[in-house]
Inverse folding.
């Protein structure tokens, strides 16, 4: 197959349509942003149902993060995620994440790996705190 911009591909799979995990998610939101490994405790609250649980983040980027969940969260579901660092409790980030996908529990742990994007996107001081948090954590991981 030849794409309009000149790129050739020989894979039939790349030309096939894919099953959309959520009617509102069209795949363009999956960016190739650098991810920062981020292992910090967070509080997750489901918007519909009000269930809340303590969790652990896996990594983060400018547009969202991945975290663990004791239950499967369906794509399109919205959760409120709040995190703070033990080393600097004054730095707290709180925002709404829209779940875009989840992976099955591995190793029989019973915890689902969930990926979400900030919806609405973080802006202003919340975005500054989130990026500052990621940058501080990135420096810690490098050492």
């Amino acid at each position: 197959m030849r794409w309009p911009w000149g790129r050739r591909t020989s894979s039939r799979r790349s030309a096939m349509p894919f099953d959309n995990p959520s009617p509102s998610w069209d795949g363009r939101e999956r960016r190739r942003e650098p991810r920062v490994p981020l292992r910090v405790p967070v509080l997750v609250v489901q918007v519909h149902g009000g269930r809340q649980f303590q969790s652990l983040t896996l990594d983060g980027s400018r547009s969202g993060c991945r975290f663990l969940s004791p239950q499967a969260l369906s794509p399109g579901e919205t959760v409120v995620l709040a995190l703070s660092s033990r080393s600097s409790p004054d730095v707290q980030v709180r925002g709404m994440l829209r779940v875009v996908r989840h992976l099955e529990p591995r190793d029989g742990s019973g915890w689902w790996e969930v990926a979400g994007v900030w919806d609405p996107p973080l802006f202003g001081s919340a975005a500054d705190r989130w990026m500052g948090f990621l940058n501080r954590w990135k420096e810690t991981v490098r050492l």
In short: Residues 9-23 have pLDDT under 50 and may be disordered. Strands lie at 36-37, 41-46, 52-61, 64-69, 78-84, 92-103, 112-118. The CA atoms of residues 6 and 60 lie 34 Å apart. The first strand starts at residue 36 and ends at 37.
